[in-house]
Amino acid sequence: MARKAKNEPYHQMMKLRATTLSCPYEDCIDHKNKANGNIIFVRKYGTGETQNLFKCTTCKRTFSERRGTPLFECHLPDEKVYQILKCLSEGNGIRATSRIVGVSKDTVGSIINRIGDHMEDVAATLMTNYHLDECQLDELWGYIFKKKRI
Q: What are the domain boundaries of the chain?
């Protein structure tokens, strides 16, 4: 009984997080429909905070919280990933980032590859949906970048 009471705040937090998720399976009728009440928290698995198992009550399938994200099957906590990305975005190299964050340089390289692949997909989607040439997209980015500095 004491163990259940200890885990209650975590379960409440996961119930709240379930309202922000949608079913990742494309053949489910509630695919990408958030806040329908069809996603429930099942349990935590593994040792980290990132391994949370949810279930779609519509299609009855379970999924990881990170499914469909670049961090699916990545065991690093979100905070470590954010630290790696912040260090890299501020101009640190791979080795410096690994020393600062306290992970191996292979881990930093893996995160770069995961995020890079995801960003390629995002860029391809943007170019497809907006019918912009690469030159136009580059000009738009340059304009936005200059606006941020002002």
A: 2-64, 78-149
pLDDT of residue 18: 82
Residue 44 C-alpha from the chain's centroid: 17
Residue 103 is classified by DSSP as S
**5: helix, strand or coil:** helix
- pTM above 0.90? no
CA distance 81 to 92: 15
DSSP letters, 26-68, are TTSTTBT-TTSS-EEEEEE-SSSTT-EEEEETTT--EEETTTT
Contacts of 51 (CB under 8 A, 6+ apart): 44, 45, 64, 65, 75
Question: Would you call 80 helix, strand, or coil by DSSP?
Answer: helix
d(CA 74, CA 31): 23
The closest alpha carbon to 11, from 46, 47, 40, belongs to 40
